[in-house]
Design a protein that fits this description.
single chain; alpha/beta; Multidrug-efflux Transporter Regulator, Chain: A, Domain 2; Rossmann fold; DNA Methylase, Chain A, domain 2; 3 domains; seven-stranded mixed sheet; 16% strand
Length: 406
């Protein structure tokens, strides 16, 4: 066993990096380094990962921003529902999958896909109007919008999900009968209605004949310069597969500094004069608590007296960290996404970089619509890693350095 494979305590980690224990805790909380618990409940840190992070802090890091792409195509095809502006589809395509059909009810998002991938069969439609019975694909994927179930937890099967978009996802699976299924959603779905909503979903998919697993994936450890957590559900026909692959987290992150290198200029939202004056006072990585006390009260208004950290308000991003999760509006007061050194919201191309869209990928619609399309997308590199795992599951090929099997 090499030295770099050793796990060490938080105290040893602080000595290794020559920082305080509190700094190590803060880095872990920010998602910049990972820790796992010993059998006694103590935090342990991997020495190899700590060395990588130390190199990043010193500017000697070899990790860089790149849009991942496999030069080898697979024989497998995918149909994607609720495709949005194509983040997941492009990632799956980069992984070597063939996108056979895509559908979404947002006209601008579908136009974005058609503009960038005219050979893909992308359709603007309400999914309930689509007949999937004559379609075939190895994979059905989709990030269905999560709605509350009227009867969640009562285990009424399909009666639990009628009237929801998850029902349409299930209907497509029934009619297409793919070997593998993929769904992604917000992390909060895992605990929605005390877990009963997710339990109902998994039960319905099990009744369709699929063995399903779920896991929250952290994008910042999967080559995405953004702290974005997504709940992923993957399933295989019970008669087909012996294992399911999911992406294995890396031991590094990609910072804004790396992501914004040589970025092209583009349009973006502007601050009002009053907002600009406030944001000028916020340091990189800071937020409203960095304002003078009287300005804190004035800017926050009633929110000043509410509980909670409210850390998204008047928030300026940091050059040396991945971005916070992108929202649909970079200048929204509750979820501010201010450029690290320039006092302005992030531009369209900066948003796109943080979601790993190529610089040539153009978005249709108004400026507001473009931000919304990008903010709602699955990061392309996350889609790539999921695509490689879908191929691994279908081919029953496991790569231990990049995949976990369940």
């Amino acid at each position: 066993m090499s030295l770099h494979s050793i796990d060490i305590s938080i105290t040893q980690a602080s000595h290794l990096l020559d920082v305080s224990v509190e700094t190590i805790r803060r880095w872990e909380k920010k998602g910049l380094i990972k820790a796992h618990r010993s059998s006694q409940g103590y935090r342990l840190f991997n020495v190899d990962e700590l060395h990588r992070f130390k190199n990043k802090l010193s500017g000697a890091s070899t990790e860089k921003y790149e849009i991942l792409f496999s030069s080898v195509s697979s024989p497998y095809s995918v149909i994607e529902l609720f495709s949005g502006a194509g983040g997941l589809a492009l990632g799956l395509h980069h992984a070597g999958l063939s996108c056979r059909f895509l559908v979404d009810n947002n006209r601008d998002a579908v136009e974005t896909i058609k503009k960038n991938q005219p050979s893909w069969n992308a359709v603007h439609s309400d999914i309930s109007d689509i007949n999937f019975k004559d379609m075939k694909a190895d994979i059905v994927a989709g990030g269905f919008p999560c709605q509350a179930f009227s009867y969640a937890g009562k285990r009424l099967g399909f009666d639990d999900i009628r009237g929801t978009l998850f029902f349409e996802y299930v209907r497509a699976i029934q009619e297409i009968s793919p070997s593998v299924i993929l769904a992604e959603n917000v992390k909060g779905l895992e605990k929605h209605d005390e877990g009963r909503t997710l339990s109902t979903m998994l039960s319905v998919l099990d009744d369709l004949g699929y063995r399903v697993i779920h896991k929250v994936l952290r994008s910042q450890y999967l080559d995405v310069p953004q702290k974005r957590e997504r709940l992923v559900i993957m399933g295989v026909k019970k008669s087909f597969s012996s294992f399911i692959c999911l992406p294995k987290e890396k031991d590094y992150t990609v910072s804004l500094r790396e992501a914004f290198k040589d970025i092209p200029l583009s349009e973006g939202q502007k601050y009002s004069e009053a907002k600009y004056d406030i944001m000028c006072l916020i340091p990189p990585g800071g937020y409203w608590r960095d304002l003078p006390f009287e300005l804190q009260k004035k800017y926050m208004g009633r929110s000043f007296f509410l509980e909670g950290g409210k850390t998204g308000m008047a928030r300026r991003l940091s050059w040396d960290e991945p971005s916070l999760t992108l929202t649909c509006h970079p200048a929204q007061k509750q979820t501010e996404r201010c450029h690290p050194s320039e006092t302005r919201p992030l531009t369209i191309r900066e948003y796109a970089r943080l979601q790993c869209f190529p610089d040539h990928w153009r978005f249709s619609g108004s400026l507001s619509s473009q931000y919304k399309q990008i903010g709602n997308a699955v990061p392309v590199n996350l889609g790539y890693h999921l695509g490689r795992c879908l191929i691994g599951t279908l081919s029953q090929t496991y790569y231990p350095h990049t995949m976990d099997i369940l």
